[in-house]
C-alpha cells in the first residue's frame, strides 16, 4: 500500500468512527466547530468586501 | 439541541404549532458524520399559515420564554434556529412522516433520510448535492427510494440530472 493509500485508508477509518458516534455526540461536535465556521465565513466576507473596495478605489 | 427539542414539544402542546420536524444539516447528522453548519432548521405547521405574520405566534412564544430573534433566526441555547413553514406538498409530507428520535431523553421529531435527500434535490445547491451523496454513502437511503419519492413530487428530471452528474459512470 502506497503512502497516499495508507493516508486515505486512515482518513476513511476516522470518518467511519465519527459516523458511528451517537447523534447527540455529533451535534455537540458540530456545536464546537460552529464558532470557527462563523469566524471563517465573516473573515471570508470581510476579505471579499476589502477586495471589492480596493478594485472600486483603483477604478 | 436538547433545549430546542423541549421548546418545540412545549410549543406543540400549547397549540402554537400543530406539528414540527427538524431538517437540514442537523437532521442529516443522525445518519452521516458530523458536518459544519451555522444554524438549525425546523419545519413547522402553524394554525393560520395564510396570515402575513404566520410565524408571529412562534416569535411571541419564544420571547415569553426568553428566546429572542437574531436576524432571521431565534437563538435557542447554542443554536440559531430558523423556523420554516411547511410550504409545499413535499415539506408537509416530510414533516408528517418524520420520525420521533430520542435526544438525551427528550422526544425530537426529525425528517427521515429519504425526505432529507429529496428536499435537498429540490433545492439543488452544491451543499445539497453533497448532502444527498453523504446520505447515500451512509446507507440510510437507497437510490431507488430517492427516485420513487422524487418522481412522486415532480422531481424526476432533477433526479435524472443528479444521477448523470454524480452517480453514473
Describe this protein's structure.
- The complex is a heterodimer of chains A (59) and B (169).
- Chain A has helices at residues 3-19, 23-58.
- Chain A has 59 residues and is an all-alpha fold.
- Chain A has a domain at 23-59.
- Chain B is α+β, with helices and mostly antiparallel strands.
- Chain B has a 5-stranded mixed β-sheet.
- In chain B, helix 4 (89-96) packs antiparallel against helix 5, helix 5 (113-123) packs antiparallel against helix 6 and helix 7 packs antiparallel against helix 8.
- Classes of the chains: A mainly alpha (59), B alpha+beta (169).
- Chain A binds chain B through residues 15, 18-19, 21, 23-24, 26-27, 29-31, 33-34, 37-38, 41, and chain B through 1-2, 25-26, 29-30, 32-38, 78-79, 101, 103-104, 138.
Top keywords for this entry?
heterodimer; A: 59 residues; mainly alpha; 2 helices; 90% helix; B: 169 residues; alpha+beta; Beta Polymerase, domain 2; 2 domains; 5-stranded mixed sheet; 8 helices; 46% helix
Principal-axis shape of chain A equals flat
> Which strand-content bin applies to the residues of chain B?
15-25%
Low-pLDDT segments, ≥5 res of chain A: none
Overall tally of domains of chain B: 2
In the CATH classification, which architecture of the largest domain in chain B applies?
2-Layer Sandwich
Taking all Cα atoms into account, the compactness measure Rg of chain B is: 16 Å
Percent range for β-strand residues of chain A: under 5%
Helix content of chain B: 40-55%
Largest sheet of chain A: none
Which of globular, elongated, flat, extended, rod-shaped describes the shape of chain B?
globular
What is the CA-CA span between the terminal residues of chain B?
40 Å
Can you give the mean pLDDT of chain B?
A: 94
Largest sheet of chain B: 5 strands, mixed
Computed structural class of chain A = mainly alpha
Element-by-element helix/strand order of chain A = HH
Please report the total strand number of chain A as a whole number.
Answer: 0
Amino acid at each position: 500500500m502506497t503512502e497516499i493509500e495508507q493516508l486515505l485508508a486512515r482518513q476513511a477509518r476516522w470518518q467511519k468512527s465519527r459516523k458511528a458516534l451517537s447523534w447527540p455526540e455529533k451535534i455537540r461536535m458540530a456545536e464546537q466547530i460552529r464558532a470557527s465556521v462563523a469566524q471563517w465565513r465573516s473573515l471570508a466576507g470581510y476579505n471579499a468586501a476589502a477586495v471589492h473596495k480596493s478594485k472600486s478605489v483603483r477604478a | 439541541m436538547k433545549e430546542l427539542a423541549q421548546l418545540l414539544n412545549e410549543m406543540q402542546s400549547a397549540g402554537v404549532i400543530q406539528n414540527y420536524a427538524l431538517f437540514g444539516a442537523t437532521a442529516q447528522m443522525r445518519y452521516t458524520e458530523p458536518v459544519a453548519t451555522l444554524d438549525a432548521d425546523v419545519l413547522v405547521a402553524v394554525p393560520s399559515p395564510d396570515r402575513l405574520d404566520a410565524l408571529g405566534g412562534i416569535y411571541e412564544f419564544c420571547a415569553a420564554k426568553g428566546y429572542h430573534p437574531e436576524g432571521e433566526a431565534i437563538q435557542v441555547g447554542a443554536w440559531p434556529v430558523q423556523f420554516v413553514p411547511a410550504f409545499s406538498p413535499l415539506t408537509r409530507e416530510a414533516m408528517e412522516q418524520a420520525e420521533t428520535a430520542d435526544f438525551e431523553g427528550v422526544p425530537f421529531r426529525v425528517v427521515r433520510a429519504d425526505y432529507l435527500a429529496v428536499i435537498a434535490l429540490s433545492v439543488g445547491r452544491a451543499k445539497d448535492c453533497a448532502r444527498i451523496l453523504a446520505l447515500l454513502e451512509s446507507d440510510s437511503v437507497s437510490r431507488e427510494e430517492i427516485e420513487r419519492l422524487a418522481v412522486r413530487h415532480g422531481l424526476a428530471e432533477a433526479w435524472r440530472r443528479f444521477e448523470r452528474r454524480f452517480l453514473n459512470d
